[in-house]
Each structure stands twice: as structure tokens, then as C-alpha cells.
Specification:
Length: 126
């Protein structure tokens, strides 16, 4: 097992790792729209928040030596399912060919008042 941490994604805001490598897989903790440089939430629009989350996730994937093409499964957590069409479009722009399996669920609240959080599981590159 190997812990992955990068300063190109927000530092963990609790007792967890940004990601853990185990058995040829990468298990990524949920990302919320925190700007890694400032530590502040991106709150301008759900599209920008989604892009910030995906960029954060991409930084964690890169730190582990993998990328979006190797994602196997993601889960999107939304505080308002009315945001789904915009989130779906922004999220989808990060994939050129096959998209990973995905679940999207509505939740009552997310850390730091976020409206979106995404976690992921990826294959490690050989």
C-alpha cells in the first residue's frame, strides 16, 4: 500500500489521504471545489465548481502516475440534483473515449458547504 499526496490538489481536511495505491488500483478520496493554491472554495457556478473538482482529481491521478483514461469508477455527490445537467456536461468534457462507470447521488450536505464532491477508483498504468 502506498499513500499519494500532492500539493497540486487540496490538502486533506481530515484524517485521510488524497489517494491510496493498493493491488494495482488507485482509490481517490472525494474532491470538493477547493483551490489548492489558496485553500478557498470555488463558488462561482456549478460548472466552475465541477471543473475545479475534476482538475483536483486529475492532479491526484497524475501524482500517482495515471490519468482520466484509467478511471474505472466515479461517484458524484450533489446537494441539488437540479445541477445534474450542467455537472454532467462539465464532467463529460474530461473524457474523450470511454467514460468510467459512475453513480450520481443527492446528499443533504457536503464538507465546507460544497455543492459537489467526486471520488474515484482508477487503474494504475503498467
Amino acid at each position: 500500500m502506498k499513500i499519494i499526496n500532492t500539493d497540486k490538489a487540496p490538502a486533506a481536511i481530515g484524517p485521510y489521504s488524497q489517494a491510496v495505491m493498493a493491488g494495482g488500483m488507485l482509490y481517490c478520496a472525494g474532491q470538493i471545489p477547493l483551490d489548492p493554491a489558496s485553500g478557498e472554495m470555488v463558488c462561482s457556478s456549478i460548472e466552475e465548481e465541477t471543473r475545479r473538482v475534476m482538475d483536483n482529481l486529475g492532479a491526484v491521478l497524475a501524482a500517482a502516475g495515471t490519468d482520466f483514461r484509467h478511471l474505472v469508477k466515479t461517484t458524484i455527490y450533489l446537494t441539488d440534483m437540479a445541477d445534474f445537467p450542467i455537472v454532467n456536461q462539465a464532467y463529460g468534457s474530461y473524457f474523450s473515449d470511454a467514460s468510467p462507470a459512475r453513480s450520481t447521488v443527492a446528499v443533504a450536505a457536503l464538507p465546507r458547504g460544497a455543492r459537489i464532491e467526486i471520488d474515484a477508483v482508477a487503474l494504475l498504468k503498467n
